[in-house]
Specification:
mainly beta
């Protein structure tokens, strides 16, 4: 198999934490169009592949086509680094 490198693009992302579900609901920091469940502490994200669930610790990534999708923290750490 050939090897490929991910192109260096800058993404926007936010981690789902306890504070995601605290304060007023909807929280002003919530991403419009996503469903935040403060009881289950989950975020429902409609993706091109269907509805996906983001849990505490997961990251919500904004893709290059303005779509959102969840990413597990271990994969996020291996794939992305913060831009200063």
């Amino acid at each position: 198999m050939k090897q490929y490198r991910k192109k260096p693009i800058v993404i926007e992302a936010v981690q789902i934490t306890e504070s995601t579900f605290s304060g007023p609901h909807p929280n002003p920091e919530h991403i419009k169009g996503l469903i935040y469940d403060p009881i289950k502490k989950q975020v429902e994200i409609e993706t091109l592949e269907g509805t996906m669930i983001g849990n505490l610790g997961d990251w919500i990534i904004k893709g290059i086509n303005e779509e959102f999708y969840p990413c597990k923290p271990d994969i996020f750490e291996k794939t992305y680094e913060e831009v200063n």
